[in-house]
């Protein structure tokens, strides 16, 4: 800092005089030697894990309880007013904008791209849920984006290059800001393998440092825009140098203030558009660092802001389109789907068959209570599938031993509440004797030492003690992040004509 006050040498005076004739202030700043430049103020506005919560919703906790919060027009309204107050503000979205509301599912995330094209963030980093509608769809979304989509460690071996740009450099109030995108290392465990075909994730710290070296001479500060989770970002910060802040996402962590780790400010702003983070910094270009900062985490209360008219128009038109999409006919049902909470049902068989097939699991289970309606023979509309499966439950893969599987099946005799519909398995119960008469998996006897994969929903796994008589630590659990309904929609559309009949896979005697 003290070098700012060095005496002016004749050469510097000459530079200053020349610069007085320069046409724009920006040129003046560029031409000044660094030691003569005053620190500059740069604001960073950031959010993460928006999950297509495009419409305001009611807060159910904290001081905003009962108030309308969030929605993209509201968030954009906050952005607009803060950008007016803090000119040159850098606007950052740390990923997982897709998945969470019908419009995202119906448009395969394109709703979010349309909205973000209006907001025009300075940069966006890809999150795991951006893969929910497949890699090709994500590629289309990236192509349609009017803003920088970044990820420095997401490698596409079909292109033999990174999937998107690793970084961008922008200028704000005379400071050059490098923004490096990052995705979590264990992406594969949260994305269906088919959705990230020929993609791999490279080491986060090494990838970031590779690009830090590339851009250090062209930037005054470097920040990481990370979809990696708060704990992982904090660990990552210990392995980095020359990075000044990490704007994170994925763990939905609400940080009222940044957490400094290894001189790096780790930030994250909750989820679902409930908060907007604002890091106001003073940058010293000589030491290439923040010399001061202030931080505010603002809750996006609807009544406190003028919503963005442009974003509101897009959100409204998207919602109007839902009506058209919901009425779209995707298939024809030949036999009525009839629910049955006391035994096998053809709708339960169909749901489990398509789910098991999709995940190539050995078995599928769906609780009868989660099937919310039957359907008459005739056209199947998108709306019907939404009404049959209105919950955004994700499919979870549970790996059990044959011995555990037998225990689950026997547990169900004594704890029959919310009967499990099934696929891949045949079981016969005698309810008066309270015994399992027979059980086979895909026509074969259950082998105690063998591993079996069960595709089921996160509601059942969330109540695994009740449904399976096991605890989570007894088994291997992997949440695919895929909403069960999306699989049903896809299957109905592919099959076109559906003729579903029961086949005696679940026999309950002496009920
Ligand atoms: Zn995530």
Walk me through what this model shows.
The protein has 511 residues and is an alpha/beta fold. It folds into 3 domains: 1-35, no CATH class; 39-322, Purple Acid Phosphatase, chain A, domain 2, CATH 3.60.21.10; 329-509, Alpha-Beta Complex (5'-nucleotidase,  domain 2). It has a 6-stranded mixed β-sheet, with helices on one face. The chain has a 6-stranded mixed β-sheet with strand order 9-10-12-13-15-14, covered by helices on one side. A hairpin with a 4-residue loop joins strand 23 and strand 24. Helix 10 (346-359) crosses helix 15 (484-495). The chain is elongated. The model is unreliable at 1-29 (pLDDT under 50). Bound molecules: zinc ion. The site of zinc ion has 6 residues, from loops.
Summarize the structure.
With 511 residues, this protein is an alpha/beta fold. Helices cover 30% and strands 29% of the residues. The longest helix is centred in the middle third of the chain and has 18 residues, at 309-326.
The biggest sheet, with number of strands, parallel, antiparallel or mixed sense and barrel status, is:
6 strands, mixed
* Strand order of the biggest β-sheet: 6-5-4-1-16-17
CATH topology of the largest domain: Purple Acid Phosphatase, chain A, domain 2
Annotation, overall tally of beta strands = 29
Task: Give the topology, please.
Blueprint: H1 10-20, H2 25-31, E1 40-47, E2 57-58, E3 68-69, H3 72-85, E4 90-93, H4 102-106, H5 110-119, E5 123-125, H6 135-144, E6 148-150, E7 154-156, E8 161-162, E9 167-172, E10 175-183, E11 199-201, H7 204-215, E12 221-227, H8 230-237, E13 245-249, E14 259-261, E15 264-267, E16 275-284, E17 289-299, H9 309-326, E18 329-333, H10 346-359, E19 363-367, E20 378-381, H11 382-388, E21 394-401, H12 402-414, E22 420-423, E23 425-430, E24 435-441, E25 444-445, E26 451-457, H13 458-462, H14 464-468, E27 476-483, H15 484-495, E28 497-498, E29 506-509
The chain binds zinc ion (ZN).
